UniProtKB/TrEMBL annotation, chain A:
The keyword Transmembrane applies. It comes from Streptomyces naganishii JCM 4654. Keywords: Coiled coil, Membrane, Transmembrane, Transmembrane helix. The chain crosses the membrane at residues 6-24. This is Membrane protein. Residues 69-96 form a coiled coil.
TrEMBL record, chain B:
The lineage of its organism: Bacteria, Bacillati, Actinomycetota, Actinomycetes, Kitasatosporales. SUPFAM superfamilies: UDP-Glycosyltransferase/glycogen phosphorylase. This is GDP-mannose-dependent alpha-(1-2)-phosphatidylinositol mannosyltransferase. Keywords: Glycosyltransferase, Transferase. It comes from Streptomyces naganishii JCM 4654. GO terms for biological process: carbohydrate derivative biosynthetic process. One of its GO terms (molecular function) is glycosyltransferase activity. Pfam families: Glyco_trans_1_4, Glyco_transf_4. CDD domains: GT4_PimA-like. Residues 14-173 form the Glycosyltransferase subfamily 4-like N-terminal domain.
Length: 180, 387
């Protein structure tokens, strides 16, 4: 009788430890998502700032300046649920403005333009990178959260179900080609 | 930045991954970063100052061949000590799925971890059995790098998730500036790779050789690499055997000079390649490249724009293309030019900057949220375990 009790106790402890370990895994994944999201935010903000700076610098022609300024401003001001759309529109505006290599050359030739162009190139390359890392973390967390043990024992607690960040982040070819 | 790099394979044995890590470490040191490489090595091997030995690797049968791996209590302790003493901003693990240092580091570390997947092995039985253990360790990796689009696809299919593609790097100018050797010039075809490994495709080239020699009798084949030379030419008629010259194992300098000298570099590999660094080296040296149409090779050669492709394992197609190219100096010059322009994207200056961008992306995010989550979630976990 006592032996059975002890075995039941051992089994319960083992199950408890396993669940605790899983909860730890999940916690780590959530922390990774937060970090990846912070990195993505930083890169998006950086891209919008450089774009806005370029738009107000007077290097570009007035029409391109307005298009770029509008898009960059909208991306920075966007509410959370509008963010993906606004950032995609900024990608499109950047692609439209920097569609041709001469435009990039013109920016480089302006005073301080070399730095600005370099900053922008870095930013448009890192946004897709940061987004991929973020969505990779989200995918891993989702796979674990959909598992029975996590749902039945509510191991995820009150953490919201992680959402991927979907946007058009194709960089302007004239910018990345130079760097490649 | 303080960078820790983990090499899963023995530093004593030369190999693609080891060379990649060596060049990467030297590139970062050149930029003024602090780099420490943890690698398995024999105690008496002389190591460069930036390499820390994780002890001797043990030969174990694994995945169909004998692999030299590091595992067990002692290795794990060394990994912990290295992590503790290094206080790295970021660690970069190579080949994290091999049951060696990479996996051990994944277990022991937390914080920004970057991992590069070099091979695109089909999923092994051991990996399926250990899937949940592996998954728990791989979940800690904040950024994954695949060396080619092909390697990325395999990674996505087998492990889920996603990765950015950053190719392997080559010191393009080292090859471009090498001095050609006159005795290796004049109607020569080059091949570099293990002679006795059929995967590297020398048998295919040997089958094609009689046809090439029938059309262009002056052609010579220069073969550089380890293996049994007699066995390699066995399939060839006796009178043709002198047209094949074996150079044995050659130094990096000679490899560059060989690639600078030949009229055509042939890569008849039959499979199992995830990148094809040798093609990049050949293009850097300005050698026209003719390669099997493996996925990875087609990508390195820009779908045939920077070098020609032939149907894999088809000796007749290989012979036809080789004869055509050897007879057409204009086409070869065109390939040289395209290859040299295309190969710049594989130069360390580009590849290293991309890898550094990855480091900066993961460290930027991690610094922002390192501490505050842990205490609250620990309480939550304790609450749950008591239920």
């Amino acid at each position: 009788m006592t032996a059975t009790l002890i075995w039941i106790l051992v089994a319960l402890v083992a199950v408890g430890l396993y669940l605790s370990w899983t909860a730890g895994r999940l916690d780590r994944l959530h922390a990774r998502i937060d970090a990846a999201r912070a990195a993505l935010d930083a890169q998006l903000l950086r891209r919008a700032s450089v774009a806005q700076e370029l738009a107000t610098s007077g290097v570009l022609d007035p029409a391109a300046s307005i298009v770029l300024y509008e898009a960059a401003h909208a991306a920075r001001q966007a509410e959370e649920d509008q963010r993906e759309v606004a950032e995609s529109e900024l990608s499109q505006a950047l692609r439209a403005v920097f569609a041709e290599t001469p435009q990039v050359e013109a920016v480089r030739e302006a005073p301080g333009g070399e730095e600005a162009a370099h900053e922008l190139t870095e930013a448009v390359r890192r946004v897709p990178m940061a987004r991929r890392f973020h969505n990779d973390a989200v995918g891993a967390a989702r796979r674990l959260r959909e598992h029975r043990k996590v749902r039945w024992f509510r191991l995820a607690g009150h953490a919201p179900f992680p959402m991927a960040f979907e946007m058009d982040d194709e960089p302007p070819t004239a910018l990345v080609e130079r760097a490649a | 930045m303080r960078i820790g790099i983990v090499c899963p394979y023995s530093w004593d044995v030369p190999g693609g991954v080891q060379f990649h890590i060596r060049d990467l470490a030297q590139y970062f040191i050149g930029l003024g970063h602090e780099v420490s490489v943890l690698a398995p090595a024999d105690d008496d091997t002389p190591l460069p100052p930036y390499v820390v030995s994780a002890g001797r690797a043990v030969p174990v049968p694994y995945n169909g061949s004998v692999a030299r791996l590091n595992f067990g209590f002692l290795s794990a302790a060394r990994v912990r000590r290295w992590l503790h003493e290094g206080r790295f901003d970021v660690i970069h693990i190579h080949e994290p799925t091999s049951p060696s240092l990479g996996l051990l580091t994944c277990w022991a570390a937390q914080g920004p971890i970057v991992a590069t997947f070099h091979t695109s092995n089909p999923r092994s039985r051991a990996m399926i059995a250990a899937y949940s253990i592996l998954q728990a360790a791989l979940e800690k990796i904040s950024a994954r790098i695949a060396v080619s689009e092909y390697a990325r696809r395999t990674l996505v299919e087998h492990l889920g998730g996603d990765a950015v593609v950053i190719p392997n790097g080559v010191d393009v100018d080292f090859f471009a500036d090498a001095e050609p050797r006159p005795e290796w010039q004049g109607g020569t075809i080059g091949f570099i790779g293990r002679i006795d490994e059929p995967r590297k495709g020398l048998p295919v080239l040997m089958r094609a050789l009689p046809k090439i020699l029938a059309e262009r009798p002056g052609t010579r084949l220069l073969v550089a690499g380890r293996g049994d030379e007699k066995e390699a030419v066995e399939s060839l008629p006796k009178e043709l055997r002198p047209r094949v010259e074996f150079l044995g194992m050659i130094s990096d300098e000679d490899k560059a000079r060989l690639l600078r000298s030949v009229d055509l570099y042939v890569a008849p590999n039959t499979g199992g390649e995830s990148f094809g660094i040798i093609l990049v080296e050949a293009m850097s040296a300005g050698a026209p490249v003719l390669a099997a149409d493996l996925d990875a090779f087609a990508q390195v050669l820009d779908q045939g724009k920077a070098g020609e492709l032939f149907a894999n394992e088809d000796a007749d197609a290989l012979a036809g293309a080789a004869v055509r190219l050897l007879a057409d100096p204009d086409r070869r010059a065109e390939l040289r030019e395209r290859g040299s322009a295309h190969v710049r994207r594989f130069d360390w200056s580009t590849v290293g900057a991309d890898i550094l961008s990855v480091y900066e992306t993961v460290t930027a995010g991690a610094a922002a949220v390192a501490t505050d989550d842990r205490t609250s979630s620990l309480r939550a976990r304790l609450g749950l375990t008591r239920d």
